[in-house]
Give the backbone structure.
Amino acid sequence: MIPAIRGTHDILPGEIERWQQAEQVVRDICGRYGYREIRTPVIEREELFAKGTGETTDIVQKEMYAFQDKGGERVTLRPEATPSMVRAFVEHALEQHLPTVKIFSLGPMFRYERPQKGRYRQFHQLDVEVFGVSDAALDAEVIEMAAALVEALGIEDAEVVVNSVGCAECRPAFGRALVTALGDREADLCGDCRRRAAVNPLRIFDCKVPSCQPIVDALPHATDYLCDACRSHFDATTGLLEALGVAFRVSHRLVRGLDYYTRTTFEILGGRLGAQNALLGGGRYDGLVRRLGGPDRAGIGFAAGMERLVLAMPDGSGPRAPDAFIVALGDAARQPAHLLARDLRRAALTALIDYGDRSMKAQLRRANRTSARHVLILGDDELAQGHVTVKDMTSGGETRVGRDDVVRNLAGDLLPASPEQPARMRRPIGRDDGD
Ligand SMILES: [Zn+2]
Ligand SMILES: [Zn+2]
């Protein structure tokens, strides 16, 4: 047996249903807010992330699956989605085709990290981006949508955290204040933080090493160094969030680990994963489109880890039981049995059937294992009379139904034609809808 690569995982039947449900909720919520789906390649030029994600980030320095392809080009499996989304926005001049460029994407990302519980080298993200809008109203809408998404997935006890990291104009002053505040404490920092202090002091806020925490807690707050424009942008964002009924906390530690963020940053933490775990995170990145060779356009977005969302979702009811299992007795019944299966499937019912010429007992055993709601038996007797024997596996009752009525009976009184949705997915989103 050749096992899967370390840090990758198969999503199997039994688990995939939760993924499908999560993806359905994602598409539904994104659609309501006017987002269109796009799909970009999982492989890109290495320089896209060196320039986009940032040369000094751990992602680019240590974690990329980068290599030279057979044509001699430096390429990489994408470690995150935002630079690809920016590339697609610029390359296809999307602003000429979409009234507001609101796009989302679902797919795998790749980072060569140390595998831990719930952390994979191939993981999956929802990525949501908007280009060309600087208005703080959008910052609030994006955060409100993220909160609505978490709520629609049935995840409870999640917490919205926001901050502002300022712009190219006011951030240098904050950076200097950080370095001053670190002063002679720098020697007490962990090795990573000492390196961060030299390269990008903002990243010290990301440190999780316990001995660094008292030092990090005492550092100055970015929001105390905002220029007037950044200040009023942040006030407008938080003001609208309050008006929209989104509960949130401002955290000065939320600077996020990537180079491109400007102004608003946010995360949604927790659910049953605990407050240490971000379900999703993002922010504004007004300089990134230009940095990647595009026009000077604002940008804002977030990425959500699908593994985490799926893990934080409440336990669902599992897959729907098949509607029917067809048991064929004897050679003459086999073709009519397959025809019956076809008719049931065309009526949007789930119909299973056994293969190979096996005994009634063996077929019934298999029917039981599938948890089918009905077993439909076709033998010489049934064929002669144009009937099907229908066993209701819930009540144990058995009836004979005319062949021409079976499909209608099963389709009519038993089952909706489309897969059931849990009630919460149909509920309108928002805070006042019956909690
Ligand atoms: Zn500023
Ligand atoms: Zn540290």
User: Anything to note?
Assistant: Residues 166-167, 169-170, 226-227, 229-230 surround zinc ion (ligand 1) (CB under 6 Å). The chain has two domains: 16-170+226-312, 324-413. Residues 415-435 have pLDDT under 50 and may be disordered. The radius of gyration is 28 Å.
